[in-house]
Amino acid sequence: MPRDASTPAGARAVTAVAPAKINLHLGVGDLRADGYHDLLTVYRAVDLWERVTVSLDDDEVVVTGPGAPQVPTDRTNLAARAVDLLREEAGSDARIAIRIHKGVPVAGGMAGGSADAAAALVATDRLLGLGLGRAALEERAARLGSDVPFCIRGGTALGTGRGEKLATLLHARAEQHIVVALADGGLSTPTVFAELDRLRAERDPADPGRDPADPGRGLPRAGGVDPLVVALAGDDPAAVAGLLANDMEAAALSLMPALRRTLRVGREAGALHGMVSGSGPTCLFFCTDRDHAIAVAAEISEHGVAREVRVTRGPVGGAHIVDDPTGK
Q: For the chain, what is the mean pLDDT?
């Protein structure tokens, strides 16, 4: 940490990027006393990026790109909270402007806000000359949100706790090609969790209040991840696709039933597997290769069941500096 953190030397502006995440497996435990849920998830970073520039300037937050009007520009913005966290830690009174360019769907279940925070942490660490290592940045990231540490790390990782405790899956490097179908409107992650709790209380076979005359309404649970981890170490996209799971999907479909048609169209277009991404409402379609993904994307676009369709791939790396005038 610099001797005089209130007067950082060197860069006047630093830019970093951080990737979107998808959950290849998302198992959600029951509601805890602290209001969170235990998660068992397999994260994968994909080639959609948030770009954040921090500079020694006025304290302002400017957001551009698709969905920008939906993103807060006050100090509740996750990137602003990340900057404030490191500025306070540094004992700095520097005024820091934040400019965010959106490349990840807003409120789409792909951690766009978390990626903003991750990129802001990496860039502010460099701007203020703190010299924090990756582990220290991930620890601070966990204070901001469950997905933020993974957006710093990238790649493919097993997440536990609230999702913030990470173990990198070093052998899961085989590339996946994925069609991303964006929905009209968004879904709030807390709202989707609350809907999942409601559905489970209403339908779960283990619930003592369940109607015994209706035994077929139990919600499936994602279960363990070992078979998926093994499949990810291979090079068979179909084997991986057959093991993908998301406990949040039922809640997202309950809140936004139109997603059922999107999933149906993508599956009928030949995708290996279609699922809601995280808390939704973005839908993901897993394909054998890039050409297959392009063909599936064209079919989904033709049916008009998505606001926008993109083709992406993963895994990719985590948050990193892309433009630093100091040349460090």
A: 90
Mean pLDDT of 228-236: 94
Which of these, 282, 281, 187, 284, lies nearest to 244 by C-alpha position?
284
The CA-atom distances, in angstroms, between 208 and each of 154, 195, 204, 216, 310 are 41, 19, 9, 15, 44
Please report, for the chain, how many H helices and E strands are present, in that order: 10, 12
- pLDDT band for 325, please (50, 70, 90 cuts): low
**In which band, very low, low, confident or very high, does the pLDDT at 220 lie, cut at 50, 70 and 90?**
confident
* Cα dist from 106 to 4, 134, 306, whole Å: 38, 26, 14
How remote is the C-alpha of 90 from its chain's centroid?
28
CB 163 within 8 A of CB 29: no
**Is 102 known to be catalytic?**
no
- pLDDT tier for residue 31 given thresholds of 50, 70 and 90: confident
Residue 203 pLDDT grade (very low, low, confident, very high; cuts 50, 70, 90): confident
Residue in 4, 21, 93, 328 annotated catalytic: 21
**How many angstroms separate the CA atoms of 145 and 161, rounded?**
12
The strand order across the sheet containing 283-287 reads 273-276, 283-287, 176-182, 308-314
Give me the catalytic one of 116, 125, 147, 247: 147
Residue 204 bears catalytic tag: no
CB contact at 8 A, 59 and 95? yes
310 CB-near residues (< 8 Å, 6+ apart):
48, 179, 180, 182, 297
